[in-house]
Amino acid sequence: MGAEYVVHLPPMFRDEKTGDYADDRVLSAEAWNRYIANADRLGRIMKEDYGLKMVLHPHGDSHIETPADIDRVFQATDPEYVGDLIEALADLDKELYVVCEQDLYGSDKGFPLPNAVKTRECLASLGLGRL
Question: What is the pTM of this model?
Answer without folding.
Answer: 0.71
